[in-house]
Amino acid sequence: MSEAAQERSARNAGGSSGAKVGTFLAKQGILIAFVLFMVSFALASERFLDPDNILGVIRSSAILGVMALGVTFVVISGNLDLSVGSLMSFSTIVVLDLHDTLGPALAILAMFGMTLAIGAVIGFLVGYLRLNSLIVTLGMLSAIHGLTLTWSGGQNMDIADKAGTWFAVFGQGRALGIPMPILMFALLAAVLGIVLAKTPFGRKVYAVGGNGTAATFSGIRRARTVFTCYLISAFCVATAGLIQASRSMGSQNTVGQGMELEVLAAVILGGASLMGGSGTIFKTVIGVLILGFIQNGLLLIGLQFYVQFVVTWIIIILAVWLDIAAKRGRLLSPIA
Amino acid sequence: MTRPALRLENIVKTFPGVRALDGVSFEVLPGEVHALMGENGAGKSTLMKVLGGIHQPNEGRILVGEEPAVMANPLEAKAKGIVFIHQELSLAEELSVAENIYLGELPRKSFGRVDWATLYARTDEILKKLKVGFDARTMVGTLSIANQQMVEIARALTVDAKAVIFDEPTASLTDSEKVVLFEVIDDLKKDGVGIIYISHRMEEIFKITDRISVLRDGEYRGTLVTKETTEDDVTQLMIGRSLDLSRNHEHAEVGDVALEVRGLSCGDLYRDISFEIRRGEVVGFYGLVGAGRTEIAETLFGLRAPSAGQILLDGEEVHLGSPVDAIARGISLVPEDRKGQGLVLGMNCRDNMTLPQVGDLTAGPFVSDGAEIAIFDQYRDKLDIRTPGWRQTVGNLSGGNQQKIVIGKWLSMHPTLLIVDEPTRGIDVGSKSEIHKLIRQLASQGYAVMVISSEMPEVLHVSDRIVAMYHGELIRTFTSDEVTEDSLIQAISGIRTDGGDKAA
Q: Is the pLDDT of residue A282 over 70?
């Protein structure tokens, strides 16, 4: 899938035949940055490259990563999704609560159904009613949080009989020696990466985000395309919620709080344009990993946990700046 | 002899592959209204951009009064007293009239506070001169287009204008609004300001101008004194070229009626339009901007629901609710705004070309690279699209090649009816004639083609029949044998010369 994704990125990056250093940096800058980070952290802390540490980072990034996959679709279609953190809390609480009454299988099914229904509402509002996605999803962030609290009555949720269920498999199990969260993240990334890069639907997502009017003029059903992107995003959120619930077997109402910004950060770090029309699943995965390794690395070199928030955002803003600077060939805006 | 307020001497401006202005000289006397005429593409707007500091001339010089002036940018042009009243308004709708007029130059009090009293007083003084029915505090967004134009004019009056350029100022005005505008121009004239008046409307030109200068194909063709000339003289000077260019194509064999439109209306945009287009026939739609031609095309492409009337394709009535319906019925539209409507600029050439049918070009669930490349290669060769390869981002191509991508996109759909809206807007001369040739070829291959154009030579050159529209009405349908430039110009100005020949 990385090959497919890279071909797609080559297609979209707009490089001319005379490949200049600038265009190379613009295209591959994120990978270079990734390598630089890894090397410098590895030099600073010997534990950094330890396989257990690496696996641990990827595992703890998996939930964020799964959500970022869906948001990549939404962002490429030219919209935003700020409701994913709040929606993830909802799925987690719902699946935990239903687990004890319906049993794990039905609980998971019901949770996916409800999460997708909320995704459909957002998709309808943004796609068919053409409401501004920032406003819709910011509103949904609060509304879903309210829904979650109403559902739970403000209480934490716990699975009563933790030993008597197979539900923990998604968060704590392993297959082929690989932790399930990583496996699910990888599988979903592969499938969605192919959908985006190789199917007609993926092409339509790029077209709608690149120029919605031109897409309409080419007979693409713009509303339906945007709607589907939000459904994909909701599906990813439900998966993330499942992993989260299964890992902890109990949860607070606020488990996903603030994650919408981290998710968006990973997508932007991966180089997707907030204007829509560009980005790839592969790059988003890199963005997710960079975020995870930065946070891990900062801890390992002994910085206080809270410093990571500051550093993360400095890095994101730098990345966006350099990306834009490479595109226009100068560091400062031509119209100052 | 008075010395000119403004003088352009031997201006040459070239763009890659085009000599847009070829030694144009032109002057405006103080207190004179000087019309600048020419077909679209004759170089009027390039000349005005040189004057306004947007383009720098390759040769020649500009004199304001007697001083040679270099306009490095629009601000310098304004500082030297050259003021433009643009066709497209550039006002901030959420600000008051006064704020718009003095934008960037608001009078200040201490600590940088805006001196509102002075601002409103000054503005009202100017508005009084213009005899308008609104005051300095009015929000610009609440004003009619005509009144917004008055705000633009008021803005011009705040500087010590040597010359004011009006670019198609009456395009969106009603008759009574025009009267007010002409009074304002008259006042400016009395104040000794030189006025350049750009318009296609003969009636206005003869009513308010003193002299008329004509450009054609980037060349200066002469200046006429309005009182001593006739519309025919001006038209002759504008069109000039050997007239047989208009009919130098072969008529294709005409087949069955592909499209029939009966009594189609859409609110105020167009009314009671009836025409038909046969296979193998190119029907040109000519008229001024805003005549309703694009709106008809949008209805035929499912983008704009009609309020009345019928559309028949191959004799069968169709209801086109969306472009998806229209495309399924074999209608294709090459839209007028290539970059905004025709292309996804950030996508590559191939993906743009196959966009309408990408859902059908599949192998299993995936888009078939081979099928896509085959289509791209076929139309790249057929249309002679010059690009390093299909991976090239469309935004990096020249306008002509971009347009060919759009045309290729729709030809590859094998439409019954191909609608082409302003096929050569913003395209260099070479590609232009290629596209004209292509349109004729398509007709000879049996396509029914509807061409909308605001360029008369283009309409005359490609069309078998020409529909002239004015203010949403179909004035007359000409065959290419009977049409003359004069009759066409009259028709699109709303003058019905022929005994009510409205039916197509």
A: yes
- B393 touching A, CB under 8 A? yes
Which of A270, A241, A89 minimizes the C-alpha distance to A170?
A241
What's residue B357's pLDDT? 95
Taking only the tens place, the pLDDT of each residue in A148-175 is 999 999 889 888 888 888 999 999 988 8
- Cβ atoms of B337 and B405 within 8 Å: the answer is no
Q: Which residue of A has its CA nearest to B389?
A: A17
* Shortest distance, CA B394 to any CA of chain A (angstroms): 8
Portions of chain B given CATH number 3.40.50.300 = 6-240, 241-330+418-504
Q: Do A217 and B327 touch (CB under 8 A)?
A: no
Spell out the domain ranges in chain A. 66-258+274-279
pLDDT, tens digit, 9 for 90 and up, residues B307-350: 999 999 999 999 999 999 999 999 999 998 888 999 999 999 99
> Do A207 and B391 lie within an 8 Å CB cutoff?
no
Contact A11 B391 (CB under 8 A): yes
Element (H, E) at B156: helix B145-158
Which comes out higher in pLDDT, residue B315 or A317?
Answer: B315
A269–chain B nearest CA distance, Å: 20
Chain A: residue nearest B409 by CA? A218
All residues of chain B having their beta carbon less than 8 Å from the beta carbon of residue A213 are: 340-341
pLDDT value, residue A10: 41
B390 to chain A: which residues are within 8 Å by CB? none
Shortest Cα–Cα distance, A154 to chain B (Å): 45
Residue in A with minimal Cα distance to B333: A217
Task: Domain B241-330+418-504: give its CATH architecture.
Answer: 3-Layer(aba) Sandwich (3.40)
Q: Tell me the nearest-neighbour CA distance from A221 into chain B, angstroms.
A: 8
| Fold category of B6-240 in CATH | Rossmann fold (3.40.50)
